[in-house]
Known about the structure:
The structure is a single chain. The protein is α+β, with helices and mostly antiparallel strands. The protein has two domains: 6-79, CATH 2.40.50.140; 85-195, no CATH class. Helices cover 39% and strands 23% of the residues. The chain has a five-stranded mixed beta barrel with strand order 1-2-3-5-4. Helix 1 (85-101) packs antiparallel against helix 2, helix 2 runs antiparallel to helix 3 (135-152) and helix 3 packs across helix 5. The chain is globular. The model has no long low-confidence stretch (mean pLDDT 86).
Amino acid sequence: MSSLIYHTDAIVLDSFDVGETDRIYAVFSKEFGLLRVSAKSIRAQASKLRGHTTLFSHSRISFVLGRAYMRLIDAEELERRNFSGERFFAAGHMSRFLLRVIQGEERDTRVWEIVSSALRFLGTLESQKRNAYERDALLSFELLFSARLLYVLGYVGEDKKDIEKLLHASEWDISFTDNEKTALRSLVDKGMRASHLW
C-alpha cells in the first residue's frame, strides 16, 4: 500500500544532523504550518535534494508521514537566500523566535506571509548591499517582526493605537519614532509573558 504524498511550499528555518548522512529540518510550510521533516541520506554527495534545502530558502517540498517525523521525499528550491553578516544574524533571530512561539502544526496564512515577506525584504537588502542599513535598523526590523508575529498569533491585541499602522503595514522598511519603538517593545514583552515563553 503506497503512502499519501503531501506537497507544500516551505521555508527552511533550522536543521540538525543525524548520524552520518541524515538531517532533520524545521520548516514553516504554507499548507501545514510548522513541520519537522527527516531527510534520509541528504548529506551524501550523491543526494539530489541536498542543494534544495538550504537555510532560509523557499522550497517546494514533498513528504510522507513517518513515525517520529515527516519524511522528505522531494524538494525544489524556488528562492535561495544567501544572507551575509548582520542580515544572516537577523534571519537567524527571526527563525529562532518563530520556532519559539509557534506550537504544533497548524496552517496560518498570515504567519506565512509575515515570514516570507520579511525574508524577501532581507534578501532585497542583501542584493542592494545597503551597508548603511546597519545593526540599529536591523534591530528595529527584528522588533517589528516579533510584534507582528505575536499580534497575528493572538498573544497581544491592538491596545496601543499609535502602533496599529505598524502592525498592519505590509512594508518592512519603516522608520518609527522613539515612542513607537517603546510601544513595540512593551507589546513584545506583553506577548511573551502571555505566551508563557518568557
